[in-house]
């Protein structure tokens, strides 16, 4: 059988599956993430243990009394993704909370394994090369799961041309890698008594009529900018003329 696909148009998937949620502290990031169906949280945040209600896998680098790495966050991520892919389970959404901490932990793990203080101390740029490969592989492995993927990031600020604007706390070069594999970017805000969600970046124009997951559709319908308005077809009489 040939590896070549049949030469005919195909209908693209109309349901977004990879999401990036960012916002200030206590703005509802984690709350929104756990509204997705059947979530499991890969968490770097101790608050998850105290206030979270969904099953959680803690992410951390664990060392023994001599400082030797006994549990690497890289291994934990690999084992978790492999289990989600190969073991029978009922999860439908993986939440990464928070992605900038995951990047820091990966960098820390590489430093400990190589006996250096900073990743730049590894000769010939091998440390950064290893980090970039590890991060990219993580994103691709997550994207390859038959599940929704939700990345959470805190809010930071950036000043350009004397104008300060809010941005995700994830470093821009890492954000480009993650966002390049996401379908929808959502910002959360807590203003007064109101919790506001806004789509700040979107891969394509998503239409309610093309969303094949009712749970995802309900989430998107509550986020301004996530869905485009569709034209309503009207007819003049019962014959449709």
Automatic annotation (TrEMBL):
The organism's place on the tree of life at top rank: Bacteria
Pfam families per the UniProt record, alphabetical: AAA_24
Protein name, per record: AAA family ATPase
Classification lineage: Bacteria, Bacillati, Bacillota, Bacilli, Lactobacillales
